[in-house]
Automatic annotation (TrEMBL):
Domain Stealth protein CR3 conserved region: 30-77
Keywords, ordered alphabetically: Transferase
Domain of life: Eukaryota
Coiled coil region boundaries: none
Pfam families xref list: Stealth_CR3 (PF17102), Stealth_CR4 (PF17103)
Alphabetical list of InterPro entries matching this protein: EF_Hand_1_Ca_BS (IPR018247), Stealth (IPR047141), Stealth_CR3 (IPR031357), Stealth_CR4 (IPR031356)
Classification of source organism: Eukaryota, Viridiplantae, Chlorophyta, Mamiellophyceae, Mamiellales
GO biological process terms on file: carbohydrate phosphorylation; N-glycan processing to lysosome
Domain Stealth protein CR4 conserved region residue range list: 196-246
GO cellular component, one term: Golgi apparatus
Annotated protein name in UniProt: Predicted protein
GO molecular function: UDP-N-acetylglucosamine-lysosomal-enzyme N-acetylglucosaminephosphotransferase activity
Length: 249
């Protein structure tokens, strides 16, 4: 396993320790541009502060580096929202009076029914300590009173324990948006894929130079010519970050 692979294995260890063993094998993030939320990245750094500082001290890639791309994305997917049951129930108190009216209870009950596929009948099945009225007469109920109902409290506890802090979407692994190609020699599959790339270019493409230094000069020249022609076809205008033609090797 190369050093990059070792950093991924170490990232997997850190993620298992933080969030538990993943039910499915974690995937390597796509070789594509990734937008990074600065505040979320700061949370990642704060969570793995020691690993971050150790990584920053390395001049070269190290097996125990913090693999930021991997831990950032899986932190984003696994971080819990951290709301209490009281905060969850209070979110349905639209007027902020500290009580849940019949309408607000009905809203909460609808959400719970959607999650658990069964109604708790909270609009009509709650005791109230206000005025001595019975269960058949719905009243505004204080959030504290609501959470004294063991059935309701247990269901809300179950919800908040699973609440994700951030929303995310996983793209289909077979999506044509991102493509990674390893260029090894003139007989590699990439040479057969060049025409497909030319016909239907992906949004993001990574051409990884893994050329064998022992390749015959004519084979290397052929490959470089093919790749150059492809890139100049897809991207005819030079980026301002590229060297001027006269400064190229």
């Amino acid at each position: 396993m190369d050093v990059f692979g070792q950093t991924l294995a170490y990232a997997n260890y850190l993620l298992d320790d933080a969030f538990g063993e993943a039910p499915l094998e974690r995937k390597v993030p796509a070789h594509a541009p990734h937008l990074v939320d600065v505040e979320i990245m700061q949370e990642v750094v704060n969570k793995w502060r020691e690993e971050h500082e150790r990584t920053s001290s390395h001049y070269f890639r190290h097996p125990m580096d913090l693999q930021y791309q991997s831990v950032y994305l899986y932190y984003l997917m696994n971080a819990k929202r951290g709301r209490t049951s009281f905060e969850f129930a209070s979110a349905f108190d639209a007027d902020g009076d500290g009580e849940l009216s019949k309408r607000e209870l009905r809203y909460l009950d609808a959400v719970m029914t959607h999650i658990f596929s069964s109604s708790l009948n909270m609009s009509f099945g709650l005791d109230s300590d206000q005025g001595g009225r019975g269960r058949d007469e719905p009243l505004p109920v204080r959030v504290e009173s609501l959470l004294r109902d063991e059935t309701v409290a247990a269901k809300i506890d179950e919800i908040v324990a699973k609440e994700k802090k951030y929303e995310y979407e996983i793209l289909d692994a077979d999506s044509d948006d991102v493509r990674f190609y390893m260029i090894r020699d003139a007989k590699s599959a990439i040479m057969n894929d060049l025409e497909k790339i030319r016909a239907v270019p992906p949004k993001f493409m990574c051409l990884n130079d893994d050329l064998d230094v022992a390749l015959p000069p004519d084979e290397r020249a052929r490959m470089l010519t093919e790749v150059r022609e492809l890139l100049e076809t897809l991207y005819p205008y030079r980026s301002p970050f590229e060297l001027p033609l006269e400064e190229e090797d």
